Structure formats: C-alpha cells, structure tokens
Amino acid sequence: MLGIILNGLFVFSVIFIWFMLLYQFVLCLGGFLLRQRRHLPAPVDDARLPSVTVLIPARDEGTVIADSISRLRALRYPEGKLEFMIVNDASRDDTLATARRQAGNDPRFTFVDIPAEEGGRGKSAALNRAFRAARGEALAVYDADNLPDAEALRLLAAALVSDRRLAAVTGKFRAYNAGRNLLTRLINLESVAFQWIIQAGRWFFLRISTLPGTNYIIWKRVVESLGGWDEEALTEDAELTFRIYQEGYLVAFLPVAVTWEQEPERLAVWVRQRTRWARGNNYLIGKFSRRLLRRRPNAATFELLNLFYLYYLFVFAILFSDLIFLLSLSGLVHVRLVGPYFELWALAFLLFVLEMMIALSFEREDSPLNLLAALLAYFTYTKLWVFIVLKGLYLDLVRGKERAWAKTERFANRTKQGK
User: Fold this and answer.
1) What distance in Å separates the CA atoms of residue 213 and residue 219, rounded to the nearest whole number?
2) What structural domains does the chain harbor?
3) What is d(CA 299, CA 368) in angstroms, rounded to the nearest whole number?
4) Where are the beta strands (DSSP E) in 33-145?
5) Residue 168: which H helix or E strand, with range?
6) Cys-Cys link to 180, which of 89, 163, 184, 287 (CB 3.0-4.6 A)?
7) Rounded Cα–Cα distance for residues 301 and 138 (Å)
8) How much is the pTM?
9) Are 259 and 151 in contact (CB under 8 A)?
10) Rounded to an integer, what distance in angstroms lies between the CA atom of residue 247 and that of residue 96?
11) Rounded to 10 degrees, what is the CA torsion of 168, 239, 206, 245?
C-alpha cells in the first residue's frame, strides 16, 4: 500500500512540476518577443503628462536614503509637475535628518513624520498616512534604497496616459549590489528571471502583471476609490494588484523604466524578507479565494490560481519528489515505475538553466560566472524557497502568529551602480 501511495505521489509530482516548467517556458518566449519589440511608450508632450507625487516610505533608512534622494532629484520630469513626499515611519536612526539635509532647499520635497507611538505598522500604513495629502494626479512609489534612472518616471507616466484601461504601470528593478557576494548574485538571477519570464511573458500574452512594490505609478483616483493600501497585507503591492483587476483595470509592465535597488547581503535578512512575502501570499489567497471563485473569471482569478499553484502545488511537488528521490537513494523506499524519469529530471534541469541564461542575456549578463550561479541555484537557492513556503505556512496555520511587518535590513552602499 505504501508503495502505491509513493508511486502516485511521485507521478503527480512530476506532472505538477512539468506543467509549471512548460508554462514558464511559454512565458519565457513571451518575454523574448516583448524584448524584441523594445516596448517603448509613444512620445507624450509635457502638457499631457500628469502631475506626480513620489511617495518614499522610510523606516530606519539612514544608511541609504541620501543616495536615493540624490537620484530622485535627478529625475527628468516637467517643472511644476513633480512632488516628493518622504514618509518617515517613526525611524529610530537619522533617516529624517539625513533626508532633510539631502533634499536641501528643493521646494518639491515635503516630509511626513509619523510619531513613534503611531509608527512601525508597515509600508501600507505609511503610504495611507501620506497619499491623501499628495497634490499629484498620479502617485509613484519608490523604496528608500532605490536609485532610479533619470528617465524612469517619465516613461512610466507616458505609458500610463497612453491607455485609459490602465490603473498603473510598473517598471523594472535591478540589483545594484548583485556582485557583492554569492547570495546577492543568486537573488539577481531570481529577479531578472522573474521580470523577463513571469512579468514580461504574462504581459505579452495575457495583459497581466503584478505591482512589485517599487518603481511604479498609479492614478491617485484609483487608490482613493479602492480605499488605499490594505494595512493587514504583508505584500501590499500584490494585494493592491488584485483589487485593481477586480475593478476591471490593467497593470502594465514597462521594462525600459528601470530602478536599481539593494538586495539582502546576508542569508538571515533574506529569510526574514522572503518569509514576509510567503505569509503575505498566504493572506492574499485566504482573502480573495472565495470572492474571486464566485465571480466570472477574470485577470484576478487567473492571478490567484497562478499564486495557489506556484506556492502550494508546485512547491509541494518539488518537496515530495526530492524526498522520494533521497529515500530511494538511501534504500528506505523503492519506487518501481517504468518511465524516463531521470531523463525528465535532466531535461528540467537544462530547461531551468536555459531560461535563466536567456533572461540574463536580455541584460547582457549571460557570463560564465552567472552560468555557474544558475547551475548552483537549481540545487540550492530554489530549494530554499521550499523552506520559506513551509515556514510561512507553519507560522500562519500552526502557530497562528500575528502578522507583523519585517523591516529589511540595509547595508552601506559600496557601489553606486545605475544606468
């Protein structure tokens, strides 16, 4: 009986894994086609561009915020149409003083200082505290470590006004500390692949993309109609995306609008950040599953099913297949199935590396060193995600731990990369 169960689990694991692999390969083709088009928005006169308030939520960001403000001030946007709002979320370091000093006498900057007794409740709460006072017709969001390209905001705004179906447009984020150590190199591979496979592919074929939390622009009226950001959500960007789709709007992906961000440089920091993401996705699935499945299928329904498949079915398929493989090697169990299972595993491995290198080639980073990193990522980094998902489920379903915002630790800028 145990053998039958193990055989069944193994077969279903292979099916679930390959379904996702084939789906991502199709999306990779979409990313390639989108890259070939360059996907530049049509030129827009200054008069048509909306006034924009750039929101920069900041909690304990004294290490990085000066560089960010310097790059924000260099954004090329029509005079009189740009406002910067620094939201100091009860910082316990010199964030506010550093930000004021770096902004100088620039009249475009305003400051929202959240007191200690009201702060630290997360990014959503900080954004909600500020956006209603924004003077811009549109809101842009940048994290306090970001170094946006000078044309990034103008490109996002031009795309936003080009299609009345759009509620928001998101650009691309890159890691400026990708070469710091092995971890940052692996994170860079993940972010490049996510954007050129998942984001670009879905936008090309399905007109679906997800707000990533930074480097995006959204109409203020849309945020107001939705009641702001959900303060219970640990992934406020994805949660807002769901509600945008529920209202019938689109979120566009514009990879030519680029910002550079800092990635975690220590594994413990990465684990805390990714656990927050995993728990945030658990919250999203719980919040939207019933209401979406009762409605006529739309983009939000597709996104929910994709999230459920990726975080639960795909991850558990990987877990079961790996466990059965290890138990078989140890001789504890014996899976007696006829089929080209080793060949399928080898092909999955090669397909993973191929997709990584194609995505990296779009950024001209398909180097021998990154090829080695991609080979290593298959056996290490991707397995860490199984641990993260299991940890998130344990905290939410077993311990019932209260959801709290986990601030991502910053590191001193050792490189000022940007293009």
Assistant:
1) 15
2) 41-181+209-263 (3.90.550.10)
3) 38
4) 52-58, 82-89, 109-114, 138-141
5) strand 166-175
6) 184
7) 27
8) 0.91
9) no
10) 37
11) -70
Assess contact for 307 and 283: CB atoms under 8 A. Answer: no
Do 315 and 386 touch, CB atoms closer than 8 A? yes
Query: Contact, 168 vs 216, CB < 8 A?
Result: yes
pLDDT of residue 2: 60
Q: Which amino acid is at 355?
A: E
Q: What single-letter amino acid sits at 260? A: W
Q: What pLDDT is attached to residue 293?
A: 66
Distance CA 332, CA 354 (A): 34
Distance between CA 290 and CA 356 in Å, rounded?
35
**What is the C-alpha radius of gyration for the chain, rounded to an integer number of angstroms?**
22
Residue whose pair of structure tokens reads 């003083």 in the numeric block: 97
Q: Hey, is 267 helix, strand or coil?
A: helix
Are 244 and 226 in contact by the 8 Å Cβ rule? The answer is: yes
| Strand arrangement, sheet containing 166-175 | 109-114, 82-89, 52-58, 138-141, 216-219, 166-175, 250-261, 147-148
List the one residue out of 180, 194, 204 whose CA is nearest residue 356. Answer: 194
**What is the pairing mode between strands 109-114 and 52-58?**
unpaired
Q: Going by C-beta distance under 8 Å and a sequence separation of 6 or more, which residues neighbour residue 119?
A: 59, 89, 90, 91, 126
CA 177 – CA 264 distance, rounded (Å): 9
Which amino acid, residue 339? G
Tracing tokens 């406002």 back to the chain, one arrives at: 83
Q: To 5 degrees, how large is the angle CA 209–CA 134–CA 52?
A: 55
At 252, give phi and psi (nearest 5°).
Answer: -90, 150
Neighbour-count burial for 14-30, b at 16+ CB within 10 Å, e otherwise: bebbeebbebbbebbbb
Cα 409 to chain centroid distance, Å, stands at 17
Decide if 42 contacts 373 (C-beta within 8 A): no
- Looking at the chain, how many residues does it have? 419
- Please tell me what DSSP assigns to residue 300: H
State how far the Cα of 172 lies from the Cα of 146, in Å rounded to an integer.
12
Walking along the chain (419 residues) 10 residues at a time, the average pLDDT comes out as: 71 86 92 84 90 97 96 96 97 95 96 92 94 96 97 97 96 96 97 96 94 96 97 94 93 96 96 95 89 71 84 87 75 69 86 95 95 95 93 93 85 61
